Amino acid sequence: MWEIYKKEFLELVRDKRTLIFTVLLPTLIMPAIFGGVAFVMDKMNKKAQQEELTFIVQNQEAMPAVVEALKKQENFKLVSVDNINELSSEEIKQNIKDKAFKFALVLPVEGQALLKQGQQAEIELHFNNASLTNKIYQRVKSAIDDLNETQQKSLLAKFNLDEETLKGLTRPISIKRVNTADKREDTGEKIGWLLPYALMILILTGAMYPALDMGVGEKERGTLETLLLTPVSRTKIVFAKFFVIFTTGFLTVFLTLASLVIWSLVALNVFAVEAIKKLTEVIAFTDVLLVFTMLAPVAAIFASLLLCASIYAKNFKEAQNYMSPIMMFSIIPIVFSILPGVQLNSTWAWVPLTNVSLAIKEIVKGTVDYGMMGIIFLSTTILAGVLLYFCNLWFNREAVLFRS
Q1: Cα(364)–Cα(279) distance, rounded to whole angstroms?
Q2: Are 247 and 342 a contacting pair, CB within 8 Å?
Q3: pLDDT of 179-198, one tens digit each?
Q4: Strand-pair category, 103-106 with 124-127
Q5: Which long-range contacts (CB under 8 A, 24 or more apart) does 344-351 make?
Q6: How far apart are CA 90 and CA 173, in angstroms?
Q7: Name one GO cellular component term (predicted).
Q8: Which helix (H) or strand (E) holds 367?
Q9: Are the C-beta atoms of residues 355 and 344 closer than 8 Å to each other?
Q10: For the structural domain made of 54-170, what CATH number should be given?
Q11: Residue 17 has pLDDT above 70, yes or no
Q12: pLDDT(341) > 80
């Protein structure tokens, strides 16, 4: 069996496609993608923050202080438009769409009078908020907040009130939030949903090509018959192929984690990235080992499932058609773990893949229940064993191996 394992594994290592999916993808391409996305998002946010904002103001004479406050802001530019006070909401919308200006403020005609009476004046801000990196509202709000503070001080002096009295009048009861979660739990809750999703997809991707090659690939090359003639039982052949697929899938996620750790240390020590520093402070090396342990039976599940599909397929094209639903039905349980309110308990601990996703999230948060981890590891290992047993039965059926 181990001779077959060595033979199959060496053949895969010599294949350039295996090196791409198993080595280059996790060690270089994935970190480059993550780093590139983070870099681009940072650049886009900075660009949005420094972008020149052209704007118009309707009824400028009603609240001149607002106009002056905006004009003083960096990269704000007031533009003139014909019949500005007669523009309807639809016309403003169309002008923004045509990029005549970035936003428009509609000031209430009685705005100044309302402020003098100590009442609230409502300003309309028209802008396109479809972009995720849009900073128009935040930048305009920052300018208006300064005016609000000035107006508040004026009102306090006018009505002979102090700030504490004002707080009592406007908000008699205040709620002070005290977060009982420590730094690690807070960070883990924010990033813990992404890690299992990415790692499991990598396992599936890393195991997919070897499974295709060692099942239907051998059928098309005509080497399967030769392998069956060797004095090795079919069960041992199945186990050899299974261990090769398991190795490549697990090796993919191992190299990914190792690469991310190395690149994180580089980013921390060379570039002094603050986010990486916070992450390394809360996640220990033992946590990484525990994540590996929980992923081992997942790799076994994917290896058995993919090998079953590859053995059953008549040709490479048919096998590829089976891969899409396998990936889809593998992703759905992982997505369940992302849903709000889904927490690791005695029920979810028995749901395949969802349980491991939730377990990894708990590991990252530092709220590990080792008893629950044991249940999850046991249930996932049992499922992997059942699938491997079925794969063995599949391989021992001539009608399956040589479908025409």
Answers
A1: 10
A2: no
A3: 776 777 776 676 777 778 88
A4: antiparallel
A5: 344/369, 344/372, 346/372, 346/375, 349/375, 349/376, 349/379, 350/375, 350/379
A6: 41
A7: membrane
A8: none
A9: yes
A10: 3.40.1710
A11: no
A12: no
